[in-house]
Amino acid sequence: MRNLKLFRSLEFRDIQAPGKPQCFSLRTEQDTVLIGSEHGLIEVDPVIREVKNEIPLVAEGFLPEDGSGCIVGIQELLDHESVCVATASGDVLLCNLNTHQLECVGSVASGISVMSWSPDQELVLLATGQQTLIMMTKEFEPIMEQQIHQDDFGESKFITVGWGRKETQFHGSEGRQAAFQMQMHESALPWDDHRPQVTWRGDGQFFAVSVVCPETGARKVRVWSREFALQSTSEPVAGLGPALAWKPSGSLIASTQDKPNQQDVVFFEKNGLLHGHFTLPFFKDEVKVNDLLWNADSTVLAVWLEDLQREENSTLKTYVQLWTVGNYHWYLKQSLPFSTCGKSKIVSLMWDPVTPYRLHVLCQGWHYLCYDWHWTTDRSSGENLSDMANVAVVDGNRVLVTVFRQSVVPPPMCTYRLLLPHPVNQIMFSAHPKKSNDLAVLDASNQISVYKCGDSPSIDSTVKLGAVGGNGFKISLRTPHLDKSYKIQFENSEDEEVNPLKLGLLTWVQEDVFLAVSHSQSSPQSVIHHLTVAPSAMDDEQGQLNISSSVTVDGVIISLCCNSKTKSVALQVAGGQILKYLWESPSLAVEPWKNPGGFPVRFPYPCTQTELAMVGGEECVLGLTDRCRFFINDTEVASNITSFAVYDEFLLLTTHSHTCHCFCLRDASLKTLQAGLSSSHVSNGESLRKVERGSRIVTVVPQDTKLILQMPRGNLEVVHHRALVLAQIRKWLDKLMFKEAFECMRKLRINLNLIHDHNPKVFLENVETFIRQIDSVNHINLFFTELKEEDVTKTMYPPPVTSTVQLSSDPDGKKVDLICDAMRAAMENVNPHKYCLSILTSHVKKTTPELEIVLQKVHELQGSAAPVPDAVSAEEALKYLLLLVDVNELYDHSLGTYNFDLVLMVAEKSQKDPKEYLPFLNTLKKMEMNYQRFTIDKYLKRYEKAIGHLSKCGPEYFPECVNLIKDKNLYNEALKLYPPNSQQYKVCSITCPGKKPRRCLWILLGNTMAVSILPLLQPKLMIFLSSADLSHCEMLGKLAEQRKHCDAATVLEQYAQDYEEAVLLLLEGAAWEEALRLVHKYNRPDIIETNVKPSILEAQKNYMAFLDSQTATFSRHKARLLVVRELKEQAQQVHLDDEAPHGQESDLFSETSSVMSGSDMSGKYSHSNSRISARSSKNRRKAERKKHSLKEGSPLEDLALLEALSDVVQGTEKLKDEIYHILKILFLFEFDEQGRELQKAFEDTLQLMERSLPEIWTLTPQQSSATPVLGPNSTANSIMASYQQEKTSVPVLDAELFIPPKINRRTQWKLSLLE
């Protein structure tokens, strides 16, 4: 869906040379043109517009002096460094343009009509006046001569065994004699010059010759091989024309055919059979085809036509038409009308052999034209919903418009057609953001037709519906109407006749203002014209566009692009310079386009497609060359780009690796784009997707997710690029357009969790809006079924970097439960009957499915009498519920509700045998209620509930309860069911295993005195007693000072016989088990009430106060550490900024400044430590303590805080064993509340410290030193400072402070009974 657009034109008028031009050729290396006339040969340079060489052939006798001579061919020979010229009289000349030497290398007495060289310039073919073909080498040595007319078909003659012959076929009403009728051959066309035509295949292996057969008088095409062997002869074609052109790619040979009512361009295969055609837009005998020419890459076919004289004194014209093919349809892309009288009559034209889309034209009045074309996609540039994503395709005098927002119609079909009176050359859409659907059409008569979208007073006959219309179809499309046609008024009418494409790069920038570019005829300059509507033509049917103002620009302008948002206009000059055209200013100035650094932008290579876009907040020029090199400003971003498009804040590109990239330009930089497009960069995000081989971007539908791609053959493919999809969904969600977002996500298989995860707070606040917009039970149920706890914005669809959307609402709450509860409340508020199934789904989808509630609701539906509109029956609800939950699981949960009606309703839907469950249910119905529920819970393996119901059945069921407690280890639950003083409680306590610290331990100790034997004294204690001659008091004092309370109590009991003091000493040392052993050993339970319990409660309070103190200290030090680190970073940044000395010697002082900074960082301690080193170790330790001072503002405050925090964590970690023992004692003496309080406080303290470890101990000194400050934003001073800091910032002795303390999670200290 591309059009050919004029890239630039070059014109050289009034070449000073004698005679009239007859033919021309190109010297590609010198960029010059060789023109032959009846007087000789001249070489001109069209760029500098001068004649470089002139070689007369009349003076040498090769051309007659009367001017009747004719040059039939010119060819530059690179190997000979000369030019080969063939004259009609039969001479073949070699001309050296440097020395002007002429050499006749051969002569044909009968004359030469055609000279044709092979593409590799190894062979030359001459057609003589005696109807022969002579083939010679490049050294002009004859190889062979053949008659141009051959009776044989050729080597590729078809073989037939008689099947399907005409004589054996049925001929209907014509009768059997039709089988034997002789085929009548029509003679050549009246205007045929009867000259042979020769064309070579692109690889030079074959050539074709079109000649008039002397026997039949009709033209035939014969195909010869390189070895001069006849291969095939074309089938008889009536009205075959003389034009002949072999497609360089080798597939088809083009010619023309006159038919009864039309004139076609037909194609032959190599075997001589016809293979396709297309019709020229002329009537029969209206024009003749002078020549057909393929361009170098076989994509464009040029047709040179000339009007036939039909009436006297009629104005005749010559046309050059450019045709392309796509999806097996031939499009007329350009039509250039020339006059046949005077200087503008075309003498010859040819495609450039090197530049595929460059066409050279030579006119009779020594007027040379050169046109450069390039492919472009004409699409509307709006970015709102009113833009219909129009794409216009030129096809002769028709414009095929496809509206991609409403329908994707494959070419050559379209949504609607615009019919113009003349062939169309250029299409432009309005640059106004709100009128982007309006388009203007420039035709071959230099007339602009403006079509506008809107209400039309009448039906426009020039607008015809395409593939979307038909009988019985209602058309919802609003087609444009012809608003007005304007004729461009030239200052010099001769310009229009000589150069039909005088104006190019037409751009519609304002309602009644067009910009156009023309090129100077005498100098390398361009002129920008403002075309405005003439005031007198405002109300006329045919208006006029006058050139109101013009601006001359140095250089040849090759592209012009306009930004519809900023109204900026950028011009590209042939040298690569980018200019900004201030078209809205009164002065109409042109200034260089500058990059963010303030330097003028210049493309290294000319770009055929340019766009303006905002990249990182700066307006930049984007360019793509015909060699697939992509530039942003003057930076090459990639070299494998086949097409690109800019939409809103996105840049979309297709590459040679068959991928499509989509980048957000809002916060992008050139380096990120280069990294994203580099071949070594592996991207698996949303910005990359695979596409079909050779895909090119056609357009992007604004405010939608559709990206239209076209394949090489011409067919279309619609893809929804993930980046566009997610961006559009985020926009819809931000605008609370839940329905559009949901439909898009459902259709494109985007996880529906994104609706909530994009902005949880906003979604939960607008749940009712979501339900009212969706308004579909099935869609809401679909949303429920896709819910999961995962945050898809962190895993599947990470948001853009600059996104400020709240990512999570409540980290402690469960996402699925929050959504289910919020939506259920909203649905019950909107219409509980309509959304009954969705309400049931919300219960089932919770983290813990609420199946009992669901079954109860279904049971309520069964009991409801009066029908309610939109209500759901119990049968339908239960059937739907079975889709979500396994029927056996639902049966068990229904049984757990103890509602037998509900159980029967579910059982009927299951696969259970009624013979199995009916007796079971009947047995349950006969039981007492509590025992019935116990039986059900035991059947469902809900043993906690089972013993609860069994405990209410009476004492006769207690043995069964005890057995169940033992079997299922339900001691914790059992002790909660009975009062502590009851007999059942004591039995349950006695049956409790002794391995666990339970309350039964007190009962065992109270009834029996089976205690352990006293442990033997430790060997070290025995040595101490035997070696020291000390009294008991001195020994007890030393042991207590060393906190060896157990050893001191052993001395008191064994040697001093004072067990009461021993118990007090054990209580002081928190040796609770040993103290209880002594109490029961000496049978003193009164000590428990007087001393043990008060000591335990006091210890619990001390632990609580200590934990509060540790928590407060930890939080205070942590907060201060963060502040200190932030202040140090700020100071370091300021230090780096001020580090480099100013002045002319800054480079000389860079190293010394780094050294100074390193010494400054070490501070005064480097000197003080040297003085302290001579002192004692006590003073050194004092200095170390003084260095790690917690005083605010001290140099190493951060290290001191790290040390203090490490001490707090380690001290708390060591308390685990003590906490474990006191928790057991608290539980033993029924201080459950105090135990729970202490356990909760200790757990909170540990969690606080564990969560804070990564925040406090971020990097070790080795890690921090291994990552110096490097990168694009670093300077030499900052890098040196980072390496200096690596050496001097952290002393070796302090390195252990950067190692975080360890918290052992495996240490068991909690009591499950206190949870």
Automatic annotation (TrEMBL):
ELP1 alpha-solenoid domain: residues covered: 722-924
Region (Disordered): 1133-1191
Residue intervals of the ELP1 N-terminal second beta-propeller domain: 393-698
Chain ranges of the ELP1 TPR domain: 931-983
Pathway(s) annotated for this protein in UniProt: tRNA modification; 5-methoxycarbonylmethyl-2-thiouridine-tRNA biosynthesis
UniProt feature, compositional bias: Basic and acidic residues: 1133-1145
Chain intervals with Basic residues compositional bias: 1177-1189
Compositional bias (Polar residues): 1147-1160
BP-aspect Gene Ontology terms: tRNA wobble base 5-methoxycarbonylmethyl-2-thiouridinylation
InterPro entries xrefs: A-sol_ELP1 (IPR056167), Beta-prop_ELP1_1st (IPR056164), Beta-prop_ELP1_2nd (IPR056165), Elp1 (IPR006849), HB_ELP1 (IPR056169), TPR_ELP1 (IPR056166), WD40/YVTN_repeat-like_dom_sf (IPR015943)
Compartments it resides in: Cytoplasm; Nucleus
Assembly description: Homodimer; dimerization promotes ELP1 stability and elongator complex formation. Component of the elongator complex which consists of ELP1, ELP2, ELP3, ELP4, ELP5 and ELP6. Interacts preferentially with MAP3K14/NIK followed by IKK-alpha and IKK-beta.
Family: Belongs to the ELP1/IKA1 family.
Function: Component of the elongator complex which is required for multiple tRNA modifications, including mcm5U (5-methoxycarbonylmethyl uridine), mcm5s2U (5-methoxycarbonylmethyl-2-thiouridine), and ncm5U (5-carbamoylmethyl uridine). The elongator complex catalyzes formation of carboxymethyluridine in the wobble base at position 34 in tRNAs.
Name listed for the protein in its UniProt record: Elongator complex protein 1
Species of provenance: Neophocaena asiaeorientalis asiaeorientalis (Yangtze finless porpoise)
